[in-house]
């Protein structure tokens, strides 16, 4: 469905002369990405509203999506699997955030937040041999990533100071998830490089 809608949108842009035929594949990919991300966000917020956890769901979206976009990391092999994985991660982070309030002291939550932010800061954005990025894109993404992280730390402090601990806990779980996805992607990359080297 995403591909069908994206193809129609791109076709309309070509007809109107907004883009050229040569850029068709790039715009179609971008359109699919925007639609996929938009649907994921809407579903997460809707599910959060239905279950009475809208602010926690919003916290996940704001602390997961922006930094994840520029830090990269593990990617599901299809848009459908990406949608399902993101929804499950949101559910897991919201649930874990609620449990943290009952079983994990605030200082330990902050330690997890700090460790995750440091991991992202030092190891992002993830660079893949299979899908290499130009150096200027990597530098630009790193700059954006660091700015987003600075905002996240400030937002986390505000949430704590205003007594929104469960919302902050969800944000921490989302940040830890982003860090883990970078580490998982690095592990897959090492295995890929090792297999390619072994084949040579």
Q: Descriptors for this entry?
A:
single chain, 200 residues, mainly alpha, 0% strand
Quick rundown:
This protein is mainly alpha-helical and 200 residues long.
- Low-pLDDT windows of residues: none
In helices, the fraction of residues equals over 70%
Structural class: mainly alpha
Question: Could you give the distance between the termini?
Answer: 40 Å
Shape: globular
Instruction: Give me the number of helical elements.
Output: 7
Assembly category? single chain
C-alpha Rg (nearest Å):
19 Å
Number of strands: 0
Overall pLDDT score? 90
Walkthrough of the structure:
It contains 7 helices and no strands. The termini are far apart. The chain is an all-alpha fold. The protein has one domain. It is globular, with a radius of gyration of 19 Å. Helix 2 (24-50) packs parallel to helix 4 (79-103).
Architecture blueprint of SSEs:
Blueprint lengths: L1 H14 L8 H27 L3 H18 L7 H25 L2 H18 L11 H27 L3 H35 L1
């Amino acid at each position: 469905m995403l591909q069908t809608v994206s193809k129609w949108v791109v076709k309309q842009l070509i007809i109107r002369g907004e883009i050229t035929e040569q850029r068709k594949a790039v715009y179609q990919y971008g359109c699919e990405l925007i639609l996929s991300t938009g649907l994921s966000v809407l579903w997460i917020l809707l599910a959060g509203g239905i279950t009475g956890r809208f602010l926690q769901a919003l916290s996940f979206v704001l602390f997961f999506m922006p930094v994840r976009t520029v830090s990269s990391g593990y990617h599901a092999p299809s848009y459908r699997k990406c949608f399902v994985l993101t929804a499950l991660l949101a559910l897991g982070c919201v649930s874990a955030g609620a449990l943290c309030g009952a079983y994990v002291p605030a200082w330990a939550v902050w330690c997890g937040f700090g460790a995750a932010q440091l991991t992202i800061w030092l190891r992002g954005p993830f660079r893949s041999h299979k899908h290499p990025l130009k150096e200027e894109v990597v530098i630009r993404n790193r700059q954006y990533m660091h700015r987003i992280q600075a905002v996240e730390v400030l937002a986390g402090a505000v949430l704590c100071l205003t007594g929104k601990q469960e919302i902050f806990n969800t944000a921490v779980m989302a940040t830890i998830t982003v860090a883990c996805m970078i580490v998982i992607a690095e592990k897959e990359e090492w295995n890929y490089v090792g297999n390619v080297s072994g084949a040579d």
